[in-house]
Design a protein that fits this description.
4 strands, globular, Beta Polymerase, domain 2, about 100 residues, 3 helices, alpha+beta
Length: about 100
């Protein structure tokens, strides 16, 4: 599924895009958050993603995941590994409130 900058993806579309990419890099799961998770995405929205790595995941693959997702979607992508997120931040609370586990 090749997208583009003017496309607005559904959660289902994003799930179909993201899951094969995170599996390619041996991540266990991902959490979608931000405007897509709130169903408020526009054609200008980026894709915000938390990767849950697991034992076999190499954290340096975060950059490759972001690049692959950008190439597939045509959208700006912000990808974080779950261990990067400080629990006492607005970002953490936003993820806990609105985040959608993709698997």
């Amino acid at each position: 599924m090749k997208g583009g900058v003017f496309m607005v993806y559904s959660i289902s579309d994003l799930k179909n895009l993201i899951i094969p990419i995170i599996k390619k890099y041996k991540a266990e799961n991902a959490i979608l958050f931000g405007s897509h998770a709130r169903n408020q995405a526009t054609s200008d929205s980026d894709i915000d993603l938390i990767v849950i790595g697991g034992n076999t995941f190499d954290p340096t693959d975060i950059f490759a995941i972001a690049e692959d997702l950008y190439e597939q979607s045509g959208k700006k992508v912000d990808v974080y590994e779950i261990n990067e997120i400080n629990e006492n931040t607005p970002l953490y609370f936003s993820i806990m409130k609105e985040g959608i586990r993709l698997e």
